[in-house]
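Subgroup meeting minutes
Present: P.N., E.W., G.H.
Scribe: E.W.

1. P.N. recapped why we're keeping a running log of single-chain structure predictions: easier to compare across weeks, and new members can see raw inputs and outputs side by side.
2. G.H. added today's entry (237 aa).
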Amino acid sequence: MKISLARRVAAEFLGTAFLVAAVIGSGIMGERLAGGNVALALLANTIATGAALVALILAFGGISGAHFNPVVTVADAMEKDIPWREAPCYLAGQLLGGVAGAVVAHLMFTLPPISMSRHARSGPTQIFSEFIATFGLLCVIWGCSRLRSNAVAFAVGAYITAAYWFTASTSFANPAVTIARCLSDTFAGIRPVDVPWFVVAQFAGGIAATLVFRWLVPNLDVRAGNILLPHPPDKNP
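Output recorded in log:
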């Protein structure tokens, strides 16, 4: 069965919205219940995000491929899974979904729909951390999708869970999520002024990982049928 571009973009919108709602919502809940213990709040945020990722990839992967991330979409287009002309549609769905997820999270916790973040996340170590976090994410995606495709959802969720703790930036690794989080002056937020360098580092890390895997698996561009989970694209949307 072929799935139209509109339905695939809708799946990207919904998946990204739920992902951002999980990130921001669990951050709010964790901070409220942790009694000032930042480590405990981060742990709650981490577990909820990793679990949500697994569930969302399994739920929407068969429809759109479950990118939920502009870096993943660009990498997928680089490796000839989706046409470049479809990539902007995916990116629009992800970005709008991220904003919607932030608004939904705020409304669930009786907060203003949008509140620009004042949480500073700047400096060379933070930017380098985002490069490493996204490089690792794409390595996990490429390696598992080509060699252990049934494990991709669990591998991605596990990697992000770990990367929350081994990177100084707590592993945003996703431009759509990063932009959405600047709209939330909560535990998971990031100042708007810090967003551009995070996004640059994320794309640099994702593209670098894709190029590395072209060398590690020389026929990757031929074998790249589905970056995350099998999905039947509509060749003539």
